Amino acid sequence: MRYRLTLLLAVLTVPVAAQRRQPAARGAAAITTEDVRRRIGIIAADSMLGRATPSPQLDQVAAYVAAEFRRFGLKPGGDSGTYLQRYPLEVQRFDPDSASIRIAGPMPTTWHTGQDVLLVDGQPPAGDSAGPGAVITGSPQGAAALDSSAVTGKVVFLAYGPGVNAVAVKILPLRPLALMLVADFPDSIWQKLPGHQASVHVRNPSEEGGSAIPAVFAVRARTARALFTQAGVPPDSLRLWGDRPLAAHPLAEVKVQLAVHQQLLERTSAPNVVGILEGTDAALKKEYVLFTAHMDHIGTPGAGEGCMARGADSICNGADDDGSGTVAVVALAEAFATALERPKRSLVFMTVSGEERGLWGSAYFAEHPTVPLASVVADLNSDMVGRNAKDTLAVIGREHSNLGGAVDSVARAHPELNIKPVGDLWPQEGLYYRSDHYNFAKKGVPILFFTTGLHPDYHQVSDSPDKIDAEKEARFARLVFYLGLAVANTTARPRWNPESYKQIVSGTN
Ligand SMILES: [Zn+2]
User: Is the pLDDT of residue 144 over 90?
Assistant: First the structure.
């Protein structure tokens, strides 16, 4: 109640000179701290079991969002007159006993999965596949990127140790056939790694070009040593070398064959939720501003999405990731539906799933859009927007279009929100590629990606609702409301910077 009261006072004390803005202010005032807190409590409750893709709990959250969209009077934007768009998935069982890795070369050898090598993460490749080997060395620091031709389709060996995550983030998007983490794992660690037993994996058969995480195996240094010796690569080259730039060294004459046989357990599907608010301008209402966030999170340890139990807690609630963004999209839908004046362009509110598995829901929508993608003038994506400093918001991708300038001027025009848009505070993390907006950017839609950033609870059981700064998130959502309104009412569409367009859109088609 206290928060509602504060807001009410804020509305009542709007100065006379600002009265012209009142219709919009009424929309923004519909976004309240109390609603943000209440909805985070629903979406990230323990009973939602961390909303893995697919799961009954993910479907429950989708039904909740759809019911809210209906209550706000949005038009259904999903399949056949509903708010839901569903994409197909396959649930498969990977049995380590039925898979092997054959090293073909001058000294052929076979590694048995579950014994010599362990599948520790990612998606096992389907059936039989083979690729040349390569060794990655160097440090993730600096701007140096790997050449994709040195990685794509190859079986890439990388030393497991400090900095490995930062390197893996650069390697995995380049689609190696598999990533092999090599280390002198002591028995005590080796026994605790996943991959000794059968595991269940979710595959997205509609994925074009694929963005699921490639298979990540662990292999002991003593097992891999012979391979490096026969390839003439000194064992030292496996180390991440201090300040040297990242480099890929081909293992000449070595071919790695993966034989993986998975059992199809179930064909199923997962939801996106889509609601549309029609614009008022006869011409511009055929164009759309898209607001996105992802409903799914990484579930519980059994979901195979990387959730790890801590003590008695085995639920990765994903309150910030991305319960917060989901709640922001719902709050924005309510705000625009409540505002006295509707914008000229139409608005699409979409909460997707499968983000944590590989941006699946947004990829499916980008391939099977329910409104013409060429008519989507912008995507404003919110992922992890409820934490960290009170006044700071990272705006990723701001340098790529004039939307970056637009968010700055909206923030300047609304000092009462006390939100300072800044650039990417985590450049080494490659955030631009790590949320749903990227699927739209690749297709030529100008985007902004909002995040309040990473924190120690990221992908942990401790990303819980009590840690969300609902007051900050409400101010953030009001900022996106005013920005969305400006984009929807400005006759000229947002424009890419030509260099960025060349790099992100032309480069990926
Ligand atoms: Zn996440």
Answer: no
d(CA 290, CA 203): 27
96-260: CATH number: 3.50.30.30
Task: Say how many Å lie between the CA of residue 451 and the centre of ligand 1.
Answer: 12
Q: Give residues whose Cβ lies within 5 Å of ion ligand 1.
A: 321
Q: What is the pLDDT of residue 487?
A: 98
Contact assessment for residue 311 and residue 368, using Cβ atoms and an 8 Å cutoff: no
Ligand 1 centre to CA of 294 (Å) is 9
Distance CA 164, CA 413 (A): 43
Look at residue 507 and tell me whether its pLDDT is greater than 70: no
Domain ranges of the chain: 50-90+268-508, 96-260
Instruction: Give the CA distances from residue 27 to residues 32, 168, 343, 477, in Å, rounded to whole numbers and listed in that order.
Output: 11, 43, 11, 11
**Ligand 1 midpoint to CA 153 (Å):** 26
How far, in Å, is the centroid of ligand 1 from the Cα of 321? 5
Q: What is the dihedral of CA 123, 126, 132, 138, to 10 degrees?
A: 0
Q: Give me the phi and psi of 475, to 5 degrees please.
A: -65, -40
Residue 45 is classified by DSSP as S
> What is the rounded CA–CA span in Å between residue 214 and residue 206?
16
How far, in Å, is the centroid of ligand 1 from the Cα of 101?
A: 30
Higher pLDDT, 143 or 162: 162
| Ligand 1 mean position, distance from CA 489 (Å) | 32
| pLDDT, position 496 | 97
CA of 298 to the centre of ligand 1 (A): 7
- pTM of this structure: 0.82
Q: What is the pLDDT of residue 385?
A: 98
Per-residue pLDDT tens over the stretch 277-320: 999 999 999 999 999 999 999 999 888 787 888 999 999 999 99
CATH of domain 50-90+268-508: 3.40.630.10
Whether 143 has a pLDDT exceeding 70, the answer reads no
Q: Does the pLDDT of residue 1 top 50, yes or no?
A: no
- Distance of CA 322 from the midpoint of ligand 1 (Å): 7
Is the CB of residue 201 less than 8 Å from the CB of residue 124?
yes
- Which of 258, 167, 179 minimizes the C-alpha distance to 213? 179
Q: How far is 478 from 31, CA to CA, in rounded Å? A: 7
Token pair of 152 as six digits: 């794509």
pLDDT over 70 at 208, yes or no: no
Q: How far is the CA of 309 from the centre of ligand 1 (A)?
A: 16
- By CB atoms closer than 10 A (0-12, 13-18, 19+), residue 269 is middle
CA of 257 to the centre of ligand 1 (A): 32
CA of 384 to the centre of ligand 1 (A): 8
Model pLDDT, residue 422: 95
- Ligand 1 centroid, distance to 324 Cα (angstroms): 12
For residue 507, report the distance from its CA to the centre of ligand 1, in Å. Answer: 26
